Amino acid sequence: MTGLRVENLSYAYGARQALDGVGFRVEPGTFCALLGPNGAGKSTLFALLTRLFTAPQGKIEVAGHDMARAPRKALRQMGVVFQQPTLDLDLTVQRNLSYFAALHGLRGARAQARIEAALERLEMRGRLGERVRDLNGGHRRRLEIARSLIHHPKVLLLDEPTVGLDAATRHAITVHVHDLSRRKRLTVLWATHLTDEVEDADQLLILHRGKLAQDGTARQLRGGLGLADHFLRLTGQAA
Ligand SMILES: Nc1ncnc2c1ncn2[C@@H]1O[C@H](COP(=O)(O)OP(=O)(O)OP(=O)(O)O)[C@@H](O)[C@H]1O
């Protein structure tokens, strides 16, 4: 199994059950949208998948590596874009990326080639020398996505990566990542509460009150309804 596999994950904050027996698979080359209203458990799931929290039960497998038994191998195959930006604003694009490359043991010409290729994919190559503080919100987000690809992960996790961006930028970034998943056979898990970021052919996981309410293609799940209406009917909350 080379994509992402999750079995029976649960997590509680004291008496509050945030996740309850969640399991799913995402195959290579698949863009999978994780949709859930506020408080559904998306961030908790991301914290478990990225090993910020340790899963008290269940199983996580990343590109065939078990997160509990071989965490380093599993994490090496994972790229992550967190909800909160984690760039150093006072460094240039180049310095931000070379620092990250070095953390993954990449240096010199090899690191530089990876950096330039990642920026190229996100149409950011011309911005190597710019300070991150001088970039707009959309370019900062693209830079974080470029950074998450430098070590050539097989699985890419993004937690509400378009928060705070305008509609056109949001659309451009969503299109880019869909394209990446197809062309690079990347396994993508994209958490959002915005139904317009989901394409009909995407795998869709709907998380509601800590449980996985639905898993299928967006087209199958929404049936004759628009996805926003389907989501509202299922969760009682507008997307
Ligand atoms: N540190 C915490 N302590 C106690 N309860 C928490 C904590 N973090 C989250 N929760 C609760 O766990 C549940 C799931 O929260 P989580 O942040 O995972 O949801 P989410 O789907 O990411 O929501 P959002 O879209 O608002 O970010 C919620 O009921 C939330 O109130």
TrEMBL record:
PROSITE patterns noted in UniProt: ABC_TRANSPORTER_2 (PS50893)
Residue ranges of domain ABC transporter in the record: 4-234
SMART domains per the UniProt record, alphabetical: AAA (SM00382)
Keywords for the protein's UniProt record, in alphabetical order: ATP-binding, Nodulation, Nucleotide-binding, Transport
InterPro entries recorded: AAA+_ATPase, ABC_transporter-like_ATP-bd, ABC_transporter_ATP-binding, ABC_transprt_ATP-bd_su_PQQ, P-loop_NTPase
Pfam families: ABC_tran
GO MF annotation: an example: ATP binding
Domain of life: Bacteria
Keyword Lyase in record: no
Family statement drawn from the similarity comment of this UniProt entry: Belongs to the ABC transporter superfamily.
Protein name as catalogued: ATP-binding cassette domain-containing protein
Species, as recorded: Leisingera caerulea
